[in-house]
C-alpha cells in the first residue's frame, strides 16, 4: 500500500495526515521535528509495541526522552499532565522541543495539551495507534484532560505539526477498541454523508476483520470530513459542533459510569442511538432510519442501549457539558441520515423520554 | 481625569485598555461581558478593597461567582488553577462564562490561564490593581503559572476582551509593590525610548508620591509600547522578546530565592543592572549609561544588586529559561539606551563575570 497524504488547513498552519501500512515511523516524522530534542509520550500498553523502534530511529539525530503513563481514560488527568511537565523540566527541555504522542486518544489529547501549555506552546506530532484516534481525536487540534466533574473540561485548541496513521497498529488493537473506533466512523456517515453510510453497511464485516485497504479508505474518508470541518471552523463556533453528534448523551454515560468502564466510542454509540430516537420523535427520522443506525452499530459490535441512569441525574450531568449555552441544552440531532444540525428545538419532556431507561419494547427488532 | 482608551490589535481580536481614575468598575466592564455568568478571581488582599462594589454593580444583570485565592507569587501554582476550575464546575458554568481578574500580575496570569484552558477557552477581562500589572502583565495575552523548577513554564497566549486600569487602586498599593511596578516602567524606557527615560528621570520623585496625572501618563506610554510590540509579534517570535529585558537574570533570582521573597519587579531591576553591565562589558553601553540606569532604579527605591548566587547555579537555572534555544542562552542586551536586541554574541566567561557576586567596588558611586 502506498501511503496517502491529506492536508488539514488550520488557521495557525496547514499540516499533513499520512495514512499508510507498516511505515517506518521515525523516518516519516523526522521532517516535522523542529529543534534537537524530542519527548515521546506513550502508555504502558502501546510503548512496549513501538517505542524501542521509534527511539532507535530518532536517536542518531535527536536527544530523545520518554514519558510512559498508565493506560486508560481514568488517567486523563492533571496528574498525568504534571508528569509530562516534570520530564520536560527535569531534562531542561527548551521551547524548541517536539512532543510526540504515541498512543490512542487519551495519550493524544494529553500530549497535545501539554504541548499547548508548556512554555505557552511547543511543537507536537500525533502517531495515533487506535482507530478512534486515527479517525477523530488526532485530527483537528482539540486537546485536553478531564475534570472530576466533566469530560474534556480543561484543554486548548492546539494543532499538531503532522499526524501519522499506520493501519498496521490496528493489528494489536483489542476488538473492543476497534468497535469503539468504528462508532466515530459511523458518526461521520450519519452527520455528513449518506452514501458513506451505505458503503459502511456494505463493508462493515470486512472492516471488522481488518481488511487494511478498506480500513485505510474509511480512515481517509473520515479524516477528509474532519479536515473539511476544521478548516471551516476550528474553534467550534458553528459547523464543527456537528462532530459532537452522540457525544452529549455519551458524556453522560461516561461521567455517570466513571471514566473507563464504558469506552468513549461505546458511550458515543449508545448516545447516537438516543440522539437518533429524539430525532425520530421530532418527526425528522423515520423508524426505518433508526433501524439502519441500530443495525450498523450492532454489526460493529457496539452497544445500542445506555446503562440505566435516572433522567434527572442525566439532565444534571448534561448541565456540565460544553454544549450548554445560557442554561439551555443544545443537542446535535439528525434532520435526515447524513444531515445533522444543532438545535434546542425540543421539549424537556421529549428529551426526558429519551433519557428514561428503555423498556424492552423500545429495542427495535 | 477623563479616562483614556488605547486599542491593542492582537491576532485573535482587538481590545481596549481603559486608563482612568476612580472609575465605576462594573459599569466599565459590563459592555465586554458575554453570556450571563461572571466569575471574579481575586486574592485575600485585593478582594476586601473592591470586590463588594464590583459584585454589587454586576449582580442585577449577571450570576456572579467568586474565587478568592491567597496572595503571593508562591500561590501561582497548578493548585490555584484547580481551585478556579472547581468553582467553575461546581456552579455549572458554561462556555459563555466571563472570567474577571481583579488583582495584580499573579491573579491576572492565573485567571488568564484558567480562561484559556477552561472548555478550551472562554472570555476574560483584566482589572489590574498593581502598577506592574497595569503597565505590563495585564496587556498582551501572556498567561500562566510557575512550575516548581521554573517561572511561567506552564501557560498560554490568551488575550483579554478588555483591560481596566484605575489609577486609584494604586493608593492602597504597598510602596514596595509600587517600586516593583516602576521597574517595568523603566524597562520600557531602556529598551524602546530614550526620551521616555529622560521623562522618567525628571518625574520619578513625583511618580513615587503618586501624582495621578503623571502615573496615568506613564501607564499610557507603557501600554502603547506594549500594544505596538504585541500587534507585531504576539507569540514572541521576534521583537516581543525584547520585553524580557532583565527577566532572564531576574528569573534566576526569583527561582533561587524562592518565589515571593524577591518581588518580580525587584528581581527584574537587579536583572536589568546585570544585563546593562554585560552590555557595557561588550562595549555597547558607556559607564555613564549604566550609571543613569542605576540612579533611576535607586530613585524608584529598587535593588540594583542581586543576592549572592553561585554563577554555576545561576547558569543552570538559566538553562530552564524559555529564552534558551538549541542549548545556547540568548539574552536581551542594550545596544544603546532605548535600543535593545536579542543576542548570544558574548563569551561564557563574560556572562559568568556578570553573574559572580559583585565586589563592593562594582557598585557605582
Walk me through what this model shows.
The structure is a homodimer of 365-residue chains. With 365 residues, the first copy, chain A, is of the alpha/beta class. Helices cover 44% and strands 20% of the residues of chain A. The first copy, chain A, contains 13 helices and 13 strands. In chain A, the strands form four sheets. Chain A has a seven-stranded mixed sheet with strand order 1-2-9-6-5-3-4, sandwiched between helices. In chain A, strands 7-8 form a two-stranded antiparallel sheet. In chain A, a hairpin with a 2-residue loop joins strand 10 and strand 11 (328-329). The longest helix of chain A is centred in the middle third of the chain and has 21 residues, at 212-232. At the A-B interface, helix 3, helix 4, strand 7, strand 8 and strand 10 of A face helix 3, helix 4, strand 7, strand 8 and strand 10 of B.
Task: Report the largest inter-chain contact.
Answer: A-B, 38 and 38 residues
Report on the biggest sheet of chain A.
Answer: 7 strands, mixed
Query: How would you describe the oligomerization state of the chains in this entry?
Result: homodimer
- What is the overall number of helices of chain A? 13
Distance between the termini of chain A: 40 Å
Which blocks of ≥5 consecutive residues of chain A have pLDDT under 50?
Answer: none
Q: Strands of the largest sheet of chain A, in order across it?
A: 1-2-9-6-5-3-4
For the secondary structure, the number of strands of chain A is 13
Give the overall shape of chain A, derived from the CA principal axes: globular
**Which structural class do the helices and strands of chain A define?**
alpha/beta
Secondary-structure element order of chain A, N to C: EEHEHEHEHEHEEEHHHHHHHEEEEH
Rg of chain A, rounded, reads: 20 Å
Helix content of chain A: 40-55%
Mean pLDDT of chain A: 92
Fraction in beta strands of chain A: 15-25%
Amino acid at each position: 500500500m502506498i501511503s496517502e497524504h491529506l492536508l488539514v488547513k488550520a488557521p495557525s498552519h496547514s499540516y499533513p495526515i499520512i495514512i499508510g501500512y507498516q511505515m517506518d515511523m521515525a523516518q516519516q516524522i523526522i521532517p516535522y521535528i523542529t529543534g534537537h530534542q524530542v519527548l515521546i509520550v506513550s502508555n504502558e500498553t502501546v510503548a512496549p509495541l513501538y517505542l524501542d523502534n521509534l527511539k532507535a530511529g530518532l536517536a542518531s539525530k535527536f536527544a530523545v526522552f520518554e514519558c510512559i503513563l498508565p493506560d486508560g481514560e481514568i488517567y486523563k488527568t492533571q496528574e498525568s499532565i504534571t508528569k509530562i511537565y516534570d520530564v520536560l523540566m527535569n531534562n531542561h527541555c527548551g521551547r524548541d522541543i517536539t512532543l510526540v504522542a504515541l498512543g490512542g486518544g487519551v495519550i493524544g489529547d494529553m500530549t497535545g495539551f501539554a504541548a499547548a501549555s508548556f512554555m505557552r506552546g511547543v511543537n507536537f506530532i500525533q502517531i495515533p495507534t487506535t482507530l478512534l484516534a486515527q479517525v477523530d481525536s488526532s485530527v483537528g487540534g482539540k486537546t485536553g484532560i478531564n475534570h472530576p466533574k466533566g469530560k474534556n473540561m480543561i484543554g486548548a485548541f492546539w494543532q499538531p505539526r503532522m499526524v501519522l496513521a499506520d493501519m498496521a497498529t490496528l493489528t494489536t488493537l483489542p476488538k473492543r477498541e476497534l468497535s469503539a473506533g468504528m462508532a466515530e466512523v459511523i458518526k461521520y456517515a450519519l452527520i455528513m454523508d449518506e452514501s458513506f453510510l451505505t458503503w459502511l453497511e456494505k463493508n462493515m464485516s470486512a472492516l471488522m476483520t481488518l481488511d487494511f485497504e478498506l480500513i485505510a479508505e474509511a480512515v481517509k474518508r473520515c479524516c477528509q470530513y474532519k479536515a473539511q470541518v476544521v478548516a471551516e471552523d476550528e474553534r467550534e463556533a458553528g459547523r464543527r459542533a456537528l462532530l459532537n453528534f452522540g457525544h452529549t448523551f455519551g458524556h453522560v454515560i461516561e461521567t455517570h459510569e466513571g471514566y473507563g468502564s464504558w469506552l468513549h466510542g461505546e458511550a458515543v454509540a449508545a448516545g447516537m442511538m438516543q440522539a437518533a430516537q429524539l430525532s425520530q420523535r421530532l418527526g425528522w427520522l423515520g423508524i426505518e432510519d433508526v433501524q439502519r443506525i441500530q443495525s450498523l452499530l450492532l454489526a460493529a459490535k457496539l452497544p445500542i442501549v445506555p446503562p440505566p441512569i435516572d433522567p434527572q441525574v442525566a439532565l444534571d450531568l448534561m448541565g456540565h457539558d460544553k454544549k450548554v449555552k445560557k442554561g439551555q441544552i443544545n443537542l446535535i440531532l439528525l434532520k435526515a441520515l447524513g444531515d445533522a444540525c444543532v438545535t434546542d428545538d425540543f421539549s424537556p419532556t421529549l428529551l426526558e423520554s429519551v433519557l428514561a431507561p428503555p423498556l424492552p419494547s423500545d429495542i427495535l427488532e
